[in-house]
Design brief:
The complex is a heterodimer. By secondary structure, chain A is α+β, with helices and mostly antiparallel strands. In chain A, strand 17 and strand 18 form a beta hairpin. Helix content of chain B is 35%, strand content 15%. Chain B has helices at 25-32, 89-96, 106-119, 125-131, 143-163, and strands at 4-10, 13-19, 51-54, 57-60, 73-75. Chain B is α+β, with helices and mostly antiparallel strands. Classes of the chains: A alpha+beta, B alpha+beta.
Chain lengths: 806, 164
């Protein structure tokens, strides 16, 4: 008796394709300490670079004396702006159309700004030499309050922009003004607000924070003078873009530059931009002829690499008495620090903030964003949130709660009343985005049923009564957040980074014996692409995921892509992967037809093989087809089996979610204890549920940190505070609660496999859920809004102001 | 600066070298011995990415001079797997339960968990969370790390019982 032929279902399971919680291929090296991160690299003759940095927030540089440093044994060179200027490299272009100083020339504009770059043969000697460089400064008054940036008597920051009344994003009307960006219907919105039965107004601030990945930024630059080729290994979330930019600013043609992103220890947006350290390491390598390593320390990372957020958002929301929203107006003051180094598509100086109408069917809206310079670190970037999406989502989710207070309506009920209906998709928002798909009612109802929302509110009512009677000193807060994200940048016609269209790519080659290698234009920093993209292909081409190698990050071999950030890998490169897989399958079908001596149309695809319609015993597996492609002379077909796809997405994707946070606040200490956190995410088709859950856990933990304690502030003379891990709140396993995850599936209609991306959703939704919960705890006592971070001290102060303590 | 003569055992091997008095143990391990498993994530001894095992205790190697480790018996992540190359239960469990993403905290985390389970072979979830509170992770939110450590504890107890 023959062995039973595996059924299609059994064969599909073996593939570990879409939907499988496949274990990760990356784990083998990471659990054994065999990862290869930038600082692990050691090359013969390698030198070390380190920076001399400004102690002042704003000062003129009077002189730089590097003689003592240069005389120290082991020091090879000390670079200053004077060395970079003849190469035109003392300033570099930012991703936002501004320029940023690589080494300060006449002024320093933020504390710890780079002033000189020491190169030595040993990292300890480099550190010694940094101390020996003498810089004389003349201190200037610092500007740290963005609300004062455009005062008539505000200090002048950017002397390099003197006289420039036009910036990259339009006219500049003050020396500290960067841009003003507006969208929507101003007159219609103001008229609707004037006529509204109820209007709620609030200033919602999203404080300055930092992505703080566990690995800091760094690179090893190596100029091979003999072959004329520059290679840079570094912490780059967008290696191809870095190559093109490096070519444009250095004059070295692109075919002679190789950028490699090795293993990266977390990105979260911190590693998208180009930093002075990269430029200085490259120049030092060219000058010395040796490889030069630069790796920053944590203080440098937190105080000089791109911060996130720092948005002051004034909102006005109008509604009918019974809670139907009629209009939304938002005016944002965006603090960009000393240089606008925002990582945004060029047409969007405020990113996708115009998603701020959120999940709600708001008929008319208007948005103005004013960007200003201050004496702070440059930026900002998307800290796990797509481009300004978490700011926008936090804004609308707080405004909904503020409106709910004013209407004396339950915040969940107000949301349900105003959701975009399932039948309204694809939905064009008042600020111009076409949302692809959504079923908000189902997700919200599932969330509320699962947490027992009505019972929670009943419990809260009892708690409030008990508190009033003096029986408890704990106030219960229930935070609801329903976010709609906009990710997957993006269509080339309106999304580009420095002119590079935001498509992405996948190239696949099948080997004669049936395994394969795929290369992508993205780069994982922990998201598990080597595991998950193989799963997409396994389902498309019927080769087990375990037989598909996925590589990223080497610009010499990977097809051009715009990298990984903004949850774009699955929507864009994932689509390219599916499309390339389909090209493979199309050719495979022709080969199978020839092998089986039938017409292509007589074949159907079944999991891992083509089967003759009506004669299922006649089939060819992908393995057989692969060998045939190298072995058979097929008329009309080239040998081999490979394909490439460059995918220009027709639209962004719009993942969404319903989060509920329950916490208890001790009013005498200000301590909030998270009792329960429930997160329902809809990211469309779910490629690997295990990895999705891990992404949600991680994003929620970052959201906890942001909402409950993280911030970077500056004092009045420009000293940065919170730039070490002594002060910058990163939760440990003790502070982090247990996370409950759930899901619904509403595929994206325009994506080849219906997937939307999920990596950033939890940071977006989480922050709102936590902040709404804290605000909710005090809402019955008259609190409309208290800003983040909700650390113990601030929460205690809120309780004190409401007369609850003492 | 004159160098000092240091002798220590690392992952079962005798090591002898000259090092400056101010050389940190983490740099000695990573650069002199090319054991790049332990990582550097901060300079204020908060993050724990540099965690190694020294004479039976978890220590942050960024906050020790190699001179202070003279004569010590050190284990890094590279010494956690069994002598025959098979993975330790913790390494297997981290993979089974998705206890890592970018991998940067993982060597320190596993090395700490390895010592934790020797100090406390049957910890509660709370004890695990306190036990690894010196190791920061930015990717996982800790939930799957805790799951992995508890699973490894269970597995190690089962193996021990079977052997007895």
């Amino acid at each position: 008796m023959n062995a039973p032929v595996p059924t299609p279902i059994e064969r599909a399971e073996k593939l570990q394709g879409l939907g499988s919680s496949r274990k990760r291929v990356e784990d083998a090296r990471f659990t054994q300490g065999k990862g290869r991160y930038v600082d692990d690299m050691k090359m013969p003759g390698m030198l070390y670079g380190d920076f001399v940095r400004s102690p002042y927030g704003h000062a003129r540089i009077k002189s730089i004396n590097a003689e003592a440093a240069k005389a120290l044994p082991g020091v090879i060179a000390v670079l200053t702006a004077a060395d970079l200027k003849p190469l035109g490299l003392h300033y570099m272009p930012t991703l936002a159309g501004d320029v940023q100083a690589v080494l300060a020339e006449e002024k320093v504009l933020y504390q710890n700004q780079e002033v000189a770059f020491v190169v030595a043969d040993d990292r300890y000697v480099a550190a010694d030499a940094v101390e020996l460089v003498e810089v004389e400064y003349e201190e200037l008054p610092a500007l740290v309050d963005p609300f004062k940036a455009m005062d008539a008597d505000a200090p002048v920051l950017r002397e390099d922009l003197a006289g420039k009344t036009t910036g990259a994003h339009g006219p500049r009307n003050h020396h500290n003004h960067i841009f003003t960006w507006t969208v929507g219907d101003k007159d219609g919105t103001h008229a609707a607000l004037d006529a509204a039965e109820v209007v709620a107004e609030e200033l919602i601030t999203y404080q300055r924070v930092h992505p703080c990945p566990l690995e800091t930024c760094g690179c090893v630059a190596s100029m091979d003078k003999i072959n004329g080729k520059l290679t840079v290994w570094g912490t780059f979330q967008a290696p191809h873009a870095v190559r093109t930019v490096a070519s444009l600013i250095s004059g070295i043609p692109e075919h002679n530059i190789r950028i490699v992103s090795p293993d990266i220890g977390g990105g979260f947006g911190n590693k998208v931009g180009v930093y002075p350290g990269y430029i200085c390491a490259i120049v030092a390598s060219i000058v010395t002829g040796k490889p030069v390593k630069w790796v920053e320390d944590r203080i440098e990372n937190l105080s000089t690499t791109a911060f996130a957020r720092d948005y002051h958002m004034r909102g006005r929301i109008g509604a009918t008495k019974d809670g139907r929203i009629t209009a939304l107006d938002c005016h944002v003051l965006a603090d960009h620090g000393a240089f606008d180094a925002c990582a945004d598509p060029t047409k969007y100086p405020a990113g996708f903030f115009s998603i701020c109408t959120g999940s709600y069917d708001i008929p008319v809206a208007h948005l103005v964003v004013d960007g200003v310079y201050t004496n702070k670190a440059p930026g900002g970037v998307a800290y796990r949130c797509s481009f300004r999406v978490t700011e926008a989502s936090y804004f609308i989710e707080r405004m909904i709660d503020v409106l709910a207070r004013k209407l004396d309506m339950d915040p969940a009920e107000l949301r349900l009343k105003n959701f975009i209906g399932k039948e309204q998709f694809p939905y064009t928002s008042a600020l111009g985005w076409e949302y692809d798909s959504g079923d908000y009612q189902t997700a919200m109802t599932k969330a509320m049923d699962t947490v027992g929302y009505a019972a929670l509110r009943a419990e809260q009512a009892e708690n409030r009564a008990a508190f009033a009677r003096g029986e408890t000193r704990s106030l219960m807060g229930i935070g609801v957040a329903f976010f709609t994200e906009i990710v997957g940048a993006g269509p080339v016609k309106n999304c580009d980074i420095l002119g590079l269209g935001m498509f992405d790519s996948c190239e696949i080659r099948i080997h004669p014996t049936g395994s394969a290698i795929a290369r992508l234009g993205t780069i994982s920093q922990g998201q598990g692409h080597a595991t998950t993209f193989a799963q997409i292909l396994a389902t498309e081409i019927g080769i087990p995921a375990s037989m598909i190698t996925v590589e990223e990050g080497d610009t010499d071999t990977a097809p051009y892509g715009l990298g990984t950030y903004g949850s774009r890998s699955t929507p864009v490169a994932g689509a390219a992967t599916a499309m390339a897989g389909r090209k493979i399958r199309a050719k495979a079908q022709m080969i199978a037809a020839w092998l089986l001596e039938v017409h292509e149309d007589d074949l159907e695809w079944e999991v891992d093989r083509f089967v003759v319609k009506g004669a299922p015993e006649r089939s060819k597996t992908m393995t057989e087809i692969a060998f045939a492609s190298y072995n058979q002379a097929i008329p009309g077909l080239e040998p081999g089996l490979e394909a490439v796809s460059y995918y220009d997405p027709p639209n962004m994707t719009y993942p969404f979610g319903a989060y509920v946070c329950v916490l208890d606040i001790d009013v005498d200490t200000g301590v909030s204890t998270v009792r329960r956190f429930y997160a329902l995410d809809d990211c469309g088709t779910r490629i690997n549920p295990m990895i999705i859950e891990g992404q949600v856990h991680g994003g929620l933990t970052e959201a906890l940190a942001i909402a409950m304690g993280q911030e970077i502030t500056y004092d009045e003379i420009g000293n940065v505070k919170g730039a070490t891990l002594m002060d910058f709140f990163l939760p440990t396993a003790v502070e982090t609660p247990a996370w409950e995850t759930d899901f619904t599936v509403t595929p994206s209609p325009h994506h080849p496999i219906g997937a939307k991306g999920v990596g950033e959703s939890p940071n977006v939704g989480g922050v709102s859920a936590f902040s709404n919960a804290v605000n909710d705890a005090f809402a019955h006592l008259g609190l409309t809004h208290t800003p983040m971070p909700h650390d113990h001290w601030r929460v205690w102060q809120t309780a004190e102001r409401l007369g609850l303590t003492g | 600066m004159g160098k000092m003569h240091v002798k220590l055992t690392v992952n079962g091997r005798a090591v002898e070298a000259l090092a400056e008095p101010r050389t940190l143990l983490i740099h000695f391990l990573r650069e002199n011995l090319e054991l790049t498993g332990p990582h550097i994530g901060c300079e204020t001894s908060h993050c724990g990415a540099c965690t190694v095992d020294l004479d039976g205790k978890s220590v942050k190697s960024c906050t020790l001079f190699v001179a202070q480790a003279n004569g010590a018996d050190i284990v890094t992540i590279e010494g956690i797997a069994h002598a025959d190359g098979t993975l330790h239960a913790l390494q297997e469990a981290f993979r089974q339960h998705h206890g890592l993403q970018c991998g940067f905290c993982t060597p320190g985390m596993i090395t700490r968990a390895w010592r934790l389970l020797q100090e406390n072979p049957n910890p509660t979830e709370e004890e695990v969370r306190y036990g690894i509170s010196g190791n920061l992770c930015r990717c996982t939110g800790y939930q799957n790390i805790v799951k992995a450590v508890l699973a490894a504890a269970h597995e190690l107890s089962a193996v021990k019982e079977a052997a007895e």
